[in-house]
Specification:
This protein is mostly helical and about 200 residues long. It has one domain (about 1-40, about 55-190). About 65% of the residues lie in helices and about 0% in strands. It has seven helices and two strands, in the order αββαααααα. It has helices spanning about 1-30, 60-90, 95-115, 120-135, 145-155, 165-180, 180-190, and strands at about 35-40, 55. Strands 1-2 form a two-stranded parallel ribbon. The longest helix has 28 residues, at about 1-30. The protein is elongated.
Length: about 200
């Protein structure tokens, strides 16, 4: 049964690698004018004196809805893999299994907020989409550095307007910051991305 579990995860990454990156590219090229917009959960934001009389609200588009489906496959996998780790190892986890377990728990916490977003700007969707490369090509070590660079870019961008005025995006940023711990554990323990436990 668990071989099927890993096979489904692998093939879902094969399926999503191109569509998820096309969404990232689309959201980068056709990004709306964020400087005159606010997130739907932002309350009482006053536009700048030289700007528009009021902000426009960032709305979901068809690409954001497709990206939510990609997020759901990850959430389902993280739940099932966490159950698998607990069933196989209990609380007797070695360094890489423990790192992966903590990574999945932190990712689930972050995913709870990310799935609620109306819109997935390119810098947020990049790190999530790039995860496909880490799963499909675990032997290419420099991909981890691209992933971390995307993660840093995403963390910085979340501190800018309009994301910094959104309570939801601040929750995403705070919970995503916790991911640094298991990512560092995976890196320093030389764990591979293939989940071969």
């Amino acid at each position: 049964m668990w071989k099927l579990h890993f096979a489904l995860w692998y093939w879902s990454q094969v399926f999503w690698i191109v569509p998820s990156f096309l969404i990232v590219v689309h959201n980068f090229i056709y990004k709306p004018p964020y400087d005159v917009m606010i997130c739907s959960d932002t309350k009482g934001a006053q536009p700048p004196p030289n700007g528009p009389k009021e902000y426009k609200v960032i709305r979901s588009n068809k690409y954001d809805r497709i990206f939510k489906l990609y997020l759901l496959t990850g959430i389902i996998y993280y739940i099932s893999d966490t159950i698998y780790l607990m069933m196989k190892y209990g609380f007797d986890l070695e360094a890489c299994e423990l790192s992966m377990f903590i990574h999945h728990m932190c990712t689930l916490a972050t995913s709870f907020y990310i799935i609620q977003a109306d819109h997935y700007p390119w810098f947020l969707s990049f790190s999530i989409s790039f995860h496909c490369f880490l799963i499909l090509f675990p032997w290419i070590g420099f991909l981890n550095y691209i992933y971390i660079s995307g993660y840093i870019c995403y963390a910085y961008a979340m501190t800018l307007h309009p994301w910094n005025k959104s309570p939801l995006f601040w929750r995403i940023l705070v919970t995503a910051a916790i991911l640094v711990i298991p990512i560092a554990m995976l890196f320093f323990n030389n764990c591979n991305n293939a989940n071969t436990y």
